[in-house]
Write a structure and sequence with these properties.
The chain is an alpha+beta fold and about 100 residues long. It is built from two helices and four strands; from the N terminus they run ββααββ.
């Protein structure tokens, strides 16, 4: 599956459009990560626990979007975008979306 954040795939022609495909996941913070984040706020530095949580969430959202694209017969997704939103205190949604296409 080809993923592109542009409207085209360089060197390929879009021969069919299948429409918008999406993938999302909702993740909650972990109390252990909150404690470490509080310490990092005092001393400074990267919040590695949250970095890993966000990376895992993006990968899961992309995987779900890709599976939806495959289910409609696409071999690429163009104009891929991400969105985040707060669902509840301590929980957020990562949402991936794009246009499923077939390229040759």
């Amino acid at each position: 599956m080809i993923l592109s954040n542009t409207e085209t795939v360089m060197g390929k022609n879009i021969v069919e459009f299948y429409g918008v495909v999406t993938g999302s996941t909702v993740r909650a913070k972990h109390i252990g990560r909150d404690i470490m984040a509080g310490l990092k706020n005092i001393f400074g530095g990267e919040l590695k626990g949250y970095t890993e949580l966000l990376q895992d969430s993006r990968e899961e959202a992309i995987d779900r979007m890709t599976k939806q694209a495959e289910s409609v017969g696409a071999n690429a997704v163009v104009n891929v975008r991400f969105s985040t939103s707060s669902i509840a205190q301590g929980a957020a949604e990562i949402f991936a979306y794009g246009t499923a296409v077939r390229v040759e």
